[in-house]
Every structure is written in structure tokens, then in C-alpha cells.
Amino acid sequence: LREDSPVLFDDAQEVWHVFRYDDVQRVLSDHAVFSSRMRAGREPDQNHLFASSLISTDPPRHRQLRSLVSEAFTPRAVAALEPRISEIVDELLDRVAGTGSMDLIDDFAYPLPVIVIAELMGIPAEDRDRFKRWSDIVVSQTREYESSPVRASAQQEMAEYFFAMIERRRRDPGEDLISRLLAAQVDGEHLSVIELLGFCALLLVAGNETTTNLLGNAVLTFAEWPGTIERLRAESGALPSAIEEVLRFRSPVQSMFRVTTEDTTLGAASLPAGSRLAAWIGSANRDGRQFPDPETFAPDRRPNRHLAFGQGIHFCLGAPLARLEARVALSALLARLPGLSLAPGAPLERIDSTIIFGPRALPV
Ligand code: HEM
User: Are 155 and 46 in contact (CB under 8 A)?
Assistant: First the structure.
């Protein structure tokens, strides 16, 4: 498709699919022509909660919302979380110590980002299981929950929980993200309760399953490409660029949606205003025009201008956090599990989603 139909109209879904690096980059970054606004009535119900959050808004509102929340996610603010992330990683590995095997997803890659976000938001430890259940249901794209009452009620429960939490923090502020967002102002305005709820839901959706799949994809890829694990153990400085290459080679977010605000052209295609597009990040990241030998996992690939975190004004707010979690988690796995390898014979199945990409389970 990338070679023969780089911009392809899909009649059934009424979506233009975009596959080449240059085109995907333009769609993600030219926000005046390719809008992120939610298309009312066409999206699955899970989007309603964050329809007014920054991922679904254009400037000028996007700029205001982003400046309100970005302080909490600067590389400096995130770096301060490293000792706590290390502790959580160690606790998770202590639980499986001595057993000789684990499911890397269920036992490690899944709980880690949920616990980190829950702590950042000030969710008490005793509520974490509920938080995890909502997160799982809300992020599931095409799994068993699709358009089911289970998802509707999970969303409702989650909204009520966050609502009560926001009210509590309003009366009794702490150091957590929700308290800081309540206090933050831009152009003399606070976030509305709906915007706050939307942001909490967005953090759950945008931050959890993505990081889980980065970790799963990393271990799978390191184990599949001979010599990688040994090399990463021997050269401690090699991990960050190997993580970037995993982001390129097996991108946790495969596609993002946009809608055109005016008539435009993309490659040879003419797109009328109001066209919906799926920009295929996963395909762009394997485009040989940008990446020599794109089907090879090259842990020290440079330059590596992958689009796994998007580009332009919507560039992933959580990228510094995701990178930090991945570095801390993967270096602990390499150091503490000397026999780390895939369990022989275990079938490899990908999660059932067209947007999020990674293994459903990974016995190691
Ligand atoms: C935006 C990927 C982790 C929060 C994005 C976008 C991508 C992405 C592709 C751009 C969306 C667009 O252009 O429409 C990823 C990947 C992650 C990850 C691959 C992990 C490996 C996180 C984490 C958080 C987070 C840990 C927060 C804790 C966000 C937010 C946005 C965003 C809030 C919206 C930014 C905006 O619209 O201005 N992410 N993400 N992400 N991400 Fe991430």
C-alpha cells in the first residue's frame, strides 16, 4: 500500500488512509489543514469523555490547555519521578522473584504505567484495582467491551470517581496533579470540571496501554534479534537509542485521526474539506525513503526521526515519562533477570486493536 496506494480512500469507512513518511508527517503537523477536532457522532462512545481535552482540540484552545498541563510533564518534572519508578519496578519484580517465569505483560508492563499515573494523580493505593479495571475497559478498542453496557458503566463510574476526587482536592488541595490542575490558570481562566475530567480520562487512555506496549514490544524485539540482550547488558549507554528503535520498529500507536478543514491535496490525491484521515504512523516508521533498511531492527540507528510520539503541536505530552519508564524498567529487567528469554512454544498474539499495537501476552 505504501508503494502503490500511498493515499487511499476507503469507501466502507469513508476514511483516507495515509502511508508514507512525508505525508504522515504533514498530516500530523499541519494542524491548520488537518484538524484534531472530534467529529461528533462518528466516533466510538469512549471518546466522549475526552472530546474537549487537548488531544481533540485545535488552536487557540489547544495552546491554552496544553500550557496548563505541560508544566507537570517537563523533562525536569518527570526526571524527579525516577527514584519512585525504580521502587515500583523493583516491587513488581520482587513479586515474581524465584518463580522462574512470568507474563511480562500482566505481571510487569501492564501494572507499571497504571501505578505511576495513579500516584501522579494522587489516587489512593486502595482504589488502584478499580482504576486499573476502568483503564482496561476504557482503552479496549475492539475487544469484548465494544459498545457494550460494560464500557458505558465503567466510564460512568470513572467519571463519578474523578468528579468526587476533584471536589475533594478543591476543598483540600495536595501536591498531586489534580490539585495542581485545579490551581492552574491560563489567560485568567481555570479549567472547567468537564475539562479536568476529560484530561484525567485522556491520561488514562493516552498514557497506559501505550507504555505497556512499548515495554512488551521492546522485550519481544530484544529477544527476537540475536545478540541484542547481551549487547544491552554489556553497554549500559546503549539502551536509550534501542528504545527509540523499538518505537520506530514496533510503534505502540499505529495510527492517528484527523479531518481536513479545507480542500487540499496530499500526494496525487485531492481531498475535499471535511475528509477524515487515518495517518499510519506504523507504516511511516517503516518507509524506506526515510529509514535505510527499514525492516531491520538497528538499535543504534541514527538519525532516527520516527513519528511514534506524533509531531507538531500534539507531540506526545507524556514522551519524557514514557521514555523514563522504559529506560528504568528495561534496565532493571536486563540486570535482574540473567536468563531473560521468550518462553519456548508460547503462541504470540497481538492485542485486538487497529490503533494500539503490541503482544497480548508475553511469557518469559
Ligand atoms: C499524544 C503516542 C505515552 C499523554 C500522543 C500522540 C502520540 C502518542 C502518537 C499524538 C496524537 C496526535 O497527534 O493526535 C504515545 C506513545 C506512548 C505515549 C507511543 C508510549 C510509548 C504517553 C504517556 C502520557 C501521554 C505516558 C501521559 C502520562 C499524551 C497526551 C497527548 C499525547 C496528553 C495529547 C497531546 C496534545 O494533543 O497536545 N501520544 N504516547 N502519552 N500523549 Fe502520548
Answer: yes
Percent helix, percent strand, percent coil in the chain, to nearest 5? 50, 10, 40
> Using a 6 Å cutoff on CB, does residue 314 contact ligand 1?
yes
Residue 66 CB less than 6 A away from ligand 1: yes
Range 139-164 burial, b when 16+ CB lie within 10 A, else e:
bbeeeebeeeeebeebbeebbebbee
Which of 38-47, 95-104, 126-135, 195-204 has the largest mean confidence? Answer: 95-104
> At residue 186, does pLDDT exceed 80?
no
Query: Is the ipTM reported for this complex over the cut 0.95?
Result: yes
Q: In terms of Cα–Cα distance, which of 72, 75, 76, 81 is closest to 181?
A: 72
CA angle 64, 66, 72 (to 5 degrees): 130
Residue 358 in contact with ligand 1 by CB distance below 6 A: no
Q: Cβ(317) to ligand 1 under 6 A?
A: yes
Residue the block writes with cell 496525487: 268
Cα 9 to ligand 1 centroid, rounded to whole Å = 26
Angle at 47 between CA 258 and CA 167, to 5 degrees: 130
Cα dist. 101→19, 337, 339 in Å? 39, 10, 10
Q: Which of 205-219, 300-314, 321-335 has the lowest mean pLDDT?
A: 205-219
Q: How far is the CA of 105 from the centre of ligand 1 (A)?
A: 20
* Mean predicted lDDT score pLDDT of the chain: 90
What is the CATH T-level fold of the domain 7-336, as seen in this structure? Cytochrome p450 (1.10.630)
In this prediction, residue 22 carries a pLDDT of 98
Q: Is the peptide bond before 60 cis (omega within 30 degrees of 0)?
A: yes
Q: Span 106-129, mean pLDDT?
A: 89
Cell matching residue 283? 507504516
**In contact, 114 and 135? CB cutoff 8 Å:** yes
Q: Is the predicted pLDDT of residue 339 greater than 70, yes or no?
A: yes
Residue 106 has what DSSP assignment?
I
Q: How far is CA 90 from CA 234, 335, 341, 363, in A?
A: 21, 11, 19, 19
Backbone angles phi, psi at 112, to 5 degrees: -55, -60
Between the CA of 311 and the centroid of ligand 1 the distance, in Å, is 10
**Residue whose CA is at the smallest distance from ligand 1 atom 36:** 314
